[in-house]
Amino acid sequence: MTSLNPLMTLGAQIIEAMPVEQKLSREERKQLAIQLLSEVGLPELSRQLTRFPFELSGGQQQRAMIAMSLAMADRVAVMCNGDLLEQGTAQAILNDPQHDYTRTLTTAHRRRLSGGRQKYNVEGLPLPAVSLAGVSVDYGNGRHRKRVLHDIDLQVPAGSTLGIAGESGSGKSTLAKAIMGLITPSTGSIEVCRIDPANPPAREEFARTCQYIFQDTAGSLNPRHNILQALLEAVQIHQRGTLALISDLPSYCADLLNDVGLNKEILQRYPHQLSGGQRQRVVIARALALAPKVLVCDEPVSALDATVRNQILDLIMDIKRRRNLTLIFIGHDLAVMEDLADRLVVMQHGRIVEQGDAHALFSAPRSAYTRELLKASHLSRNQTQFTHTPASGMKTAPGYLMGV
């Protein structure tokens, strides 16, 4: 998200990445950009060229970045701890890695979560922690008004884990924002622990009840605040609604970091001085500072490499079990959902096409769309062959895709 220029259209940014040695005309570069967008699976190709990054979902933004990389990259360099371990053609590195670390990276996506999926243990039918009835969301006004969520009915039992899956642009993040009260529904009602998240007088109470773990860690942390300041802000909000005051705030913040596997030494660092995995742990610690009952995780590992992704997923599930949280987990990877979700919701074009017990849904999906998602997930887990070929008519120039 932070890698795309917010003031430039996608077309302009992809064309900018094309090597000048290609000596293509303006129209040829435009057509090449359309071919690249088609290769990464973005719909409405000609329209995408004129869109700005904020008009795309996180997954669509990632696809645009891949299109930019394909316009210039044909070699891969693998780094670890500041050392260049291996480099070569993309096909050679991804299909026949020579270094042990590279092999770890290319196979990490196949490893299941260490703890596996564990059913929530609540006697009887627990009251829903999150409840949505007939929720629809519109964007825009007048003739430009567009419905992006359609009549969503959903209940999440207390202590359970709900997975929300679907392709980029299916409405997953919009649904999460509605649950968090960041978007007011056009129709329907939402309750989180019996609180209306869109009710202004209840916002502070809601913040202590439900917290959000963002996909874009760099954008969700204030770059002018060090980690101590970021955590203190959340702790002070929490204290305003509780009788027990925390006497030693820095020590409490250090304990929060320890809870997510970080050393207190990073309290004086700034977000840009941390790795992506460290920033994600800080964002989780900040959410836990308010002692919430519900966590909404919006694709929290999509920007991380495969090995760190598994560590963060294990951490989230460990915290969920220790604190008996209700978890809503949004993502693309159904293999991950199979490990951690009790119930699963599958979305397409702003609608729920299927929902139910995760085990039953994975065993016998009813909708053709869910079967396609499961098929794609199965292929991604069992195939590592790198098969990219340049789009038709594309002339490649030497370039690196830095980091696997």
Outline the structure in words.
The radius of gyration is 22 Å and the shape is globular. 38% of the residues lie in helices and 20% in strands. The longest helix is centred in the C-terminal third of the chain and has 18 residues, at 306-323. It starts with 9 loop residues before the first helix and ends with a strand. Residues 113-117 and 383-404 have low confidence and may be disordered. The protein folds into two domains: 10-72; 128-382, Rossmann fold, CATH 3.40.50. The strands form three sheets. The chain has a six-stranded mixed sheet, with helices on both faces. The protein has helices spanning 10-16, 26-39, 45-48, 58-70, 90-95, 100-107, 172-179, 203-207, 217-220, 227-240, 249-259, 276-288, 306-323, 334-340, 358-363, 368-382, and strands at 75-80, 83-89, 128-139, 146-157, 161-165, 187-192, 210-213, 294-298, 326-331, 343-348, 351-357, 400-402. The chain contains 16 helices and twelve strands. It is of the alpha/beta class.
Output the keywords:
single chain; 404 residues; alpha/beta; Rossmann fold; three-stranded mixed β-sheet; 16 helices
